[in-house]
């Protein structure tokens, strides 16, 4: 079976052992070293490491000091953490439809959704390509809104030469399968020194000096062990991204022209981080998306469906006082994607022959 993801952190062992030998396990110099590396990677002044991508999003929204009823506009086509984080920070969720080009917040739909209580735009850089920051960042600026980027999947992506996470408050995930991993972890990036300080306080129970509480905080700290897992990956990230890029380019060349299949586009001015390689299986294809997934599984190729339903379309959110009463029909572009999107393996551990196999089996399954 060709797996959908392979985690390879063997080169982190020496640094992890250093931490074990040191006996200092809680947030300390390793975390600081990881943060410095991450800030350099995103080209931001500050990086604040936390214990998950979800915590990064919660802390980012909390740091903006919203009032009850204030709204965050985000994508309905995302992982549930985006919505759970908004709710966890006490804010109200609003959704705007996505663009079929990049699967992320559509700037026009977003502008039309802005209301008197809107405080934050939270685009999700889905699959590793940024949203249209050339329109969304100025939109936030013009309307006096904060921009919080859910860049969980977009470590290494950029838009017109600037890295994801450097346009607004950047929120990254270091979960086991993300482009850089610490097992569990997250990072918030910002150029705003005051905001960075607030984030550091929120992360550590609101304490700057022991037992002096400056604000009601939480424990979002990253451990030294987790930071040690991540550090070596920052040094080889460019290489890992190049392997992903190479695999994506080969897949797109090989799959081009397959009837009913749309391969993912890297849009002009953007650098895709290829966290996922996601094709669209259109209504004219010989098989539905789910049939193709089942067929590929039979042929030894793992695939994944991100995401089979819109994020609000689950019982637990129905009637929630801070989630709008919307239906998939309100977001026709996103709703179509839930039926058509299928992610194929693109990870750095794929061999050239694995890529050939994926191309051959997809083409054959779809009658090309
Ligand atoms: C992974 C992910 C998150 C959450 O990150 P965790 O580290 O799992 O908490 C948030 N948003 C998106 C889009 C993600 O893919």
From TrEMBL:
Q: Looking at the keywords, is Transferase present?
A: yes
Which controlled-vocabulary keywords does the entry list?
Aminotransferase, Antibiotic biosynthesis, Pyridoxal phosphate, Transferase
Q: Known SUPFAM superfamilies for this protein?
A: PLP-dependent transferases
**Required co-factors:** pyridoxal 5'-phosphate
- Record-level Gene Ontology MF annotations: transaminase activity
**Superkingdom per UniProt:** Bacteria
Q: Which family does it belong to?
A: Belongs to the DegT/DnrJ/EryC1 family.
Which PANTHER family does the UniProt entry name for this protein? DTDP-4-AMINO-4,6-DIDEOXYGALACTOSE TRANSAMINASE (PTHR30244:SF34), TRANSAMINASE (PTHR30244)
Report what the protein is called: DegT/DnrJ/EryC1/StrS family aminotransferase
Species whose genome carries this gene = Amycolatopsis pigmentata
């Amino acid at each position: 079976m060709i797996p959908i993801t392979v985690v390879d952190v063997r080169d982190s062992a020496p640094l992890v052992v250093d931490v074990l030998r040191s006996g200092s396990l809680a947030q300390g110099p390793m975390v600081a070293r990881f943060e410095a590396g991450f800030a350099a990677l995103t080209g931001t002044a500050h990086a604040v490491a936390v214990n998950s991508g979800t915590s990064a999003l919660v802390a980012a929204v909390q740091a903006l000091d919203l009032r009850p009823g204030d709204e965050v506009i985000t994508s309905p086509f995302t992982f549930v953490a985006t919505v759970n984080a908004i709710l966890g920070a006490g804010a109200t969720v609003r959704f705007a439809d996505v663009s079929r080009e990049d699967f992320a917040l559509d700037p026009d739909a977003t502008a039309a959704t802005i209301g008197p209580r809107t405080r934050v735009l939270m685009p999700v850089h889905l699959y590793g390509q940024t949203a249209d920051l050339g329109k969304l960042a100025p939109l936030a600026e013009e309307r006096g809104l904060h921009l919080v980027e859910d860049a969980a999947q977009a470590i290494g992506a950029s838009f017109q030469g600037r890295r994801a996470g450097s346009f607004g408050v950047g929120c990254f995930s270091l979960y086991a399968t993300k482009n850089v991993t610490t097992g569990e972890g997250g990072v918030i990036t910002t150029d705003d020194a005051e905001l960075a300080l607030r984030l550091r306080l929120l992360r550590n129970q609101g304490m700057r000096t022991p037992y002096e509480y400056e604000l009601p905080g939480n424990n979002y700290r990253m451990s030294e062990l987790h930071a040690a897992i991540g550090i070596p990956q920052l040094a080889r990230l460019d290489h890992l991204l190049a392997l992903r890029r190479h695999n994506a380019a080969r897949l797109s060349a090989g799959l081009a022209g397959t009837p009913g299949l749309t391969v993912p586009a890297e849009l002009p001015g953007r650098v895709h981080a290829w966290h996922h390689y996601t094709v669209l299986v259109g209504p004219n294809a010989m098989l539905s998306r789910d049939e193709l997934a089942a067929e590929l599984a039979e042929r030894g190729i793992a695939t994944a469906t991100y995401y089979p339903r819109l994020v609000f379309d689950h019982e637990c959110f129905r009637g929630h006082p801070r989630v709008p009463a919307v239906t998939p029909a309100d977001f026709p572009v996103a709703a179509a994607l839930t039926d058509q999107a299928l992610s194929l393996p693109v990870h750095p551990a794929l061999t050239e022959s694995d890529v050939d196999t994926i191309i051959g089996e997809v083409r054959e399954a779809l009658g090309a």
